[in-house]
From TrEMBL:
Entry's localization field: Membrane
Record field: transmembrane: 195-218
Organism: Menura novaehollandiae
Ranges in coiled-coil conformation: none
Name the UniProt record assigns to this protein: DMA protein
Record lineage: Eukaryota, Metazoa, Chordata, Craniata, Vertebrata
Name of the gene: H2dma
Cited PANTHER family: HLA CLASS II HISTOCOMPATIBILITY ANTIGEN, DM ALPHA CHAIN, MHC CLASS II-RELATED
Length: 220
């Protein structure tokens, strides 16, 4: 059977920031997102062709936005006090793009999953000091379980003693989740490798002597 794929278009309107979000995904990978301030489609990947000019134009999207906002207001008024507000607990992971080595430029990625609603702030600190230079954020990407994910990146040059932190704060309740990353100590790694190599060599010598002894006993 041919493999099945999921093409999804998700429009979000909410009282939080961003108030509007529109994404098109294929198998949960974002293809395009609509830049509402600039009123144009933006490809998420550089090699994608531009959005067709006659397909779902900004006036068409404006009509969908107006319908979404009207539904949100009417449903909020009708269901207020009857249904609890749904909120997800963000799951945060942090990792380098390349294998980390002290003194070599790299990039840290902070991946935030299980986002709902899509309204949170991602900030970075280095040893407790806020860092903003070079920080980039991706748009929110909807997933098949009706949550969102988002990631942030920051350029780094790993050094001994650095403690990088990705701080995720949800809007509304100001709940905070923090993930940390510390550069590996290459000196300890080299020492461990040397110790393991020495232990392996010693074990090899012992096994060789044991083999010789057993061979002599068997001959006798």
């Amino acid at each position: 059977d041919p493999a099945s794929h999921l093409l999804a278009e998700v429009l979000t309107c909410q009282p939080d920031t961003p108030s509007l979000d529109l994404s098109i995904t294929l198998d949960e990978e974002q293809l395009f997102w609509f830049d509402f301030p600039g009123s144009h489609w933006t490809p998420q990947l550089p090699h994608l062709p531009p959005w067709p000019a006659g397909l779902e134009t900004p006036p068409d999207i404006l009509q969908e936005v107006q319908l979404c906002q009207e539904l949100r207001k009417s449903l909020s008024q009708a269901l207020s006090g009857f249904l609890p507000e749904s909120r997800g607990i963000p799951v945060v992971s942090i990792f380098p793009v390349l294998p980390p080595f002290l003194g070599e430029p790299n990039t840290l990625v902070c991946l935030v999953e299980n986002i709902f609603p899509p309204a949170l702030d991602i900030t970075w600190t280095l040893s407790g000091v806020p860092v903003t230079r070079g920080v980039t954020h991706s748009p929110y990407t909807p997933t098949s379980d009706l949550t969102f994910r988002r990631y942030s990146q920051i350029p780094i040059v790993p050094a001994v003693g650095d403690v990088h932190a990705c701080v995720v704060t949800t809007q509304g309740d100001n709940a905070t989740v923090v993930a940390y990353w510390v550069p590996p100590d290459t000196a300890l790694d080299e020492g461990l490798d040397t110790a393991l190599a020495g232990a392996a060599m010693a074990l090899g010598i012992v096994l060789a002597l044991l083999g010789v002894t057993l061979a002599m006993v068997a001959r006798r």
